[in-house]
Amino acid sequence: MIRLDSVDLIFNSGLPNEMTALKNINLSVEKNELTLLRGASGSGKSSIFSLIAGLVKPSRGDVIIDGKSIAKIPDSFAALMRRDKLGVIFQKFNLIHDLSVYDNITLPLIPSAKTTSEIRLSAEKILTDLTLTNKINTAVRYLSGGEQQRVAIARALINQPKIILADEPTANLDQALIESFLHIIHDLKAKGITILLASHDPRFSELEWVDQVIDIAHGEIQ
Amino acid sequence: MNLKLIDYGLSSLWRRFWKRFTVILIFSLLVFLLVSIFSIATSLRQELGITLDALPELIVQKMSGGRQTVIPAERAYEIATIPGVSAAIPRVWGYYYFGSANVNFTIIGQDPDLDSYKAKYSKLFELNAPLIDTLTRPFFLAGQGVVDIMDEYYFKDEFFFITSKGEILNLVLAGTFVDESSLETNDVIIMPEILARELFDIYEDDATDIVVRVPNPAEIEIVKQKIQFLYPDCRIIGKDQIDTSYQNIFDYKSGLFLALLIPAFMAFFTMIYDKASGLSLEEKREIGIMKAVGWRVEDVLFLKLLESGFVSLFSFFNGVAFSFFFVYILNAPLLRNLFIGAGNLKPAFQLIPVIDIHILSLSFMAIVPVYILATIIPAWKTAIIDADEVMR
């Protein structure tokens, strides 16, 4: 489902401030697997997510998503790939605070060919699953941390993605919310979604249903 | 056309209403001032053009010691014999100072017969109906400005002029010029020529000046030279000279107004510079999020085009609408007075509605494409460079 072959990622290549973010990364995630990326802050986890999401291009090597290389595709195709196949849950949720819950979660589908009624149906279903129906018109800035996280998850699921990327999703949450998040992730896995999760929270390593754990440090897989 | 994107764009504008409101306010004000000033000038030029068309081709004035003096009326006969001249008419006119109001009236001596006035100026004045049938005393016609001043000083249907010999000349107001002609007639009084002569102490053989009609424009210059040769002590003023002097006054005043626009332009360009030099962190973050969730660069640019297009077009049409309302409905209070300050009395005329496509194009080009570009370019820079930042 996801494959990185001998990938290097170098920023400001050839300049005095050149920085190697990733070095010779080889990684493979199969369909319906939950893979945990472990590493300290700045180790390169987010760079791997950016590569998989097609937001940056590798300096060397190849990135293959669902059988297709995205290493050299134009930005507009990478955007379509994100819209069709990926759902991303960011560390700080990255919601637009003055938009309502509904507007935030439907944001990925606005440029799509789906009709407004189709989008509304999808949104209502997800909001019901994540018990956010009563907050549908509330601006995100008025929500609690847990509610914001569920909105971020809802937004990642609105396009019925095959792959979910979750970057440090529990970093700012208390114990109860972490438990709730783990339930949601478990359900998603049960539904056949491939999940790549970056975290240095030891609780994830202890989960039985994690299929693969990859340790990363200084831009290299250990 | 993606209606969802348009809907999102509009709601995005609404979300940042107060931020956009300031931009709309400044842009609208700029367009309003620009269009108003040029509309007033264009409208006045139009009005003056009509007036100039009615002016004689040449006006002959006698000069003495570098100043205008009365001219012997008999010269008109000699001038009329010059080939190409269809008529040469001596005129009696002058300025009458009304001390109480500190204003000058322009007094023109014309035929004493009311019927001839009526025929000549039928569309220009309204007769004082209750008085007209019982008119036994000498009368005069006046512009609206004169009538207003008279009213202010309790002169209702008659006025007491004081001649240059100190005698009182009591005349009845027989009619008022209509408002549409006020630019030319506001401070004008027309009275029988004999009374005007009495008022200004101009002898029967003299006139203030002589107007010369030359139907063929190609002959005007040669006629002018012949008159000058015939009467070296005369100054001959052509219609083109009057036209040029009016144009100069209006161009000069328009220039002054444009200088007054500098602060508004400064505010506009500061805003544009601020906009073009980069997006706010909040806007950058929003674009980053959009890209991360699957928006293409062109989707982001289309959204920004919608937003900036709406803001600039709305400001433009808003400014133009307010300007037309101000100039043609409210008759441009304040600004109009500054433009027509040369008259003795401020005319109360209605500005002629003129839609000058050049002015509208200039205002449009100064606002709309500039703002759209200043919005789209930084958005494009952010969309192609910074999208990955949102992952961190």
Mean pLDDT of chain A: 87
How many domains, in number, for the residues of chain B?
A: 2
Tally of alpha and pi helices of chain A: 7
Percent of residues in beta strands of chain A: 25-35%
Instruction: Provide the succession of SSEs of chain A.
Output: EEEHEEHEHHHEHEHEE
**From the helix content, strand content and strand pairing of chain B, which structural class follows?**
alpha+beta
Chain pair sharing the greatest interface: A-B, 33 and 27 residues
Strand arrangement across the biggest beta sheet of chain A: 6-7-8-3-9-10
Termini gap of chain A: 22 Å
| Second CATH tier, the architecture of chain A | 3-Layer(aba) Sandwich
* Major β-sheet profile of chain B: 11 strands, mixed
Tally of individual domains of chain A: 1
Gross geometry of chain B: elongated
Total strands of chain A: 10
Instruction: Provide the CATH top-level class of chain A.
Output: Alpha Beta
Q: What level of helicity do the residues of chain A show?
A: 25-40%
**Could you estimate the helical fraction of the residues of chain B in percent?**
55-70%
Helix and strand run of chain B: HHEEEHEEHEHEHEEHEHEEHEHHHHHH
Low-confidence stretches of chain A: none
CATH homologous superfamily designation of chain A: P-loop containing nucleotide triphosphate hydrolases
Oligomer: heterodimer
Provide a concise account of the structure shown.
The complex is a heterodimer of chains A (222) and B (392). With 222 residues, chain A is an alpha/beta fold.
Question: What does this entry look like structurally?
Answer:
The complex is a heterodimer of chains A (222) and B (392). Chain A has 222 residues and is an alpha/beta fold. Chain A contains seven helices and ten strands. Chain A is globular, with a radius of gyration of 17 Å. The model of chain A has no long low-confidence stretch (mean pLDDT 87). Chain B is built from 15 helices and 13 strands. Chain B has helices at 3-15, 17-54, 75-80, 114-120, 129-132, 144-152, 182-185, 193-200, 220-230, 239-260, 262-276, 281-292, 297-329, 335-339, 357-385, and strands at 58-64, 67-69, 71-72, 87-98, 103-110, 125-127, 139-142, 158-162, 168-177, 188-192, 206-207, 209-213, 234-238. In chain B, the strands form two sheets. In chain B, strands 1, 2, 4, 5, 6, 7, 8, 9, 10, 12 and 13 form an eleven-stranded mixed β-sheet that branches. Chain B has a two-stranded antiparallel ribbon with strand order 3-11. In chain B, a hairpin with a 4-residue loop joins strand 4 and strand 5 (103-110). In chain B, helix 1 crosses helix 13 (297-329) and helix 2 (17-54) packs across helix 13. At the A-B interface, helix 1 and helix 2 of A face helix 1, helix 12 and helix 13 of B.
